[in-house]
From TrEMBL:
Cofactor requirement: Zn(2+)
Protein name per UniProt: Peptidase M50 domain-containing protein
Organism for this UniProt entry: Candidatus Magasanikbacteria bacterium RIFCSPHIGHO2_02_FULL_45_10
Subcellular location: Cell membrane
Membrane topology term: Multi-pass membrane protein
Example GO biological process: proteolysis
GO-annotated molecular function: metal ion binding; metallopeptidase activity
CC per GO annotation: plasma membrane
Keyword Mitochondrion among record annotations: no
Record-linked CDD domains: S2P-M50_like_1 (cd06158)
Length: 205
């Protein structure tokens, strides 16, 4: 992607992250927990979701420090109370999956439009929107707290492996940082595969 494309990517990934968080709150509300609604977070108004560090400062720092090669952002996490959920076994996992699935729906929608107008000038920007949302989906499915994949993992773990949950809860943030710094390249092939599955092989990523 060129420099203009990366700037566009920056302005796309933030709204995508906001929709991601909204989806968490929407799902929790449907499953019996009104915490996000009472906190005023069931809205797409960016002012309710922007986090100074995760939405503004961190992406700018990553953009500058990587010379424009890497950028990631997140919105303020939507609060929810797992004890209010109707399904105590799978409720948290469904809330966790709602965010990545929202990104998949966004990616699929824009990929559909891309396939309709692959020769138009806006096509590269549509492809960037697809790529950004696929990246958000795959990254957030990693099984490290506070990422969404950890909620799915916890629902699948048997009680005999409770110590794994304790370990991840204690060191999750450190594991996420380690993953970003040293292992992020491992998921690039997965992101690229899904991206090209959605838009076709002609997109130049």
């Amino acid at each position: 992607m060129d420099y203009l494309g990366l700037l566009f990517y920056f302005f796309i990934i933030i709204p995508s992250a906001i929709i991601h968080e909204y989806a968490h709150g929407w799902m929790a509300d449907r499953l019996g927990d009104p915490t996000a609604r009472y906190a005023g977070r069931l809205t797409l108004d960016p002012r309710s979701h922007i986090d100074l560090w995760g939405t503004i400062l961190m992406p700018l720092l990553l953009f500058v420090s990587s010379g424009g090669r890497f950028l990631f952002a997140y919105a303020k996490p939507v609060p929810y109370n797992p004890y209010n959920l109707k399904n105590q076994r799978w409720g948290s996992a469904l809330v966790g999956l709602a965010g990545p699935m929202a990104n998949l729906l966004l990616a699929s929608g824009f990929a559909f439009v891309y396939r309709l107008v692959p020769e138009l000038a806006i096509a590269p920007f549509l492809a960037i929107i697809v790529y950004a949302n696929v990246l958000l989906m795959i990254f957030n499915l990693m099984p490290f707290p506070p990422l969404d994949g950890s909620k799915v993992l916890y629902a699948l773990l048997p009680d005999s492996l409770y110590s794994v949950k304790v370990f991840l809860d204690r060191y999750g943030f450190v594991l996420v940082l380690f993953f970003i710094l040293f292992l992020f390249q491992l998921i690039i092939p997965v992101i690229s595969f899904i991206f090209h599955l959605l838009v076709g092989t002609s997109a130049g990523f």
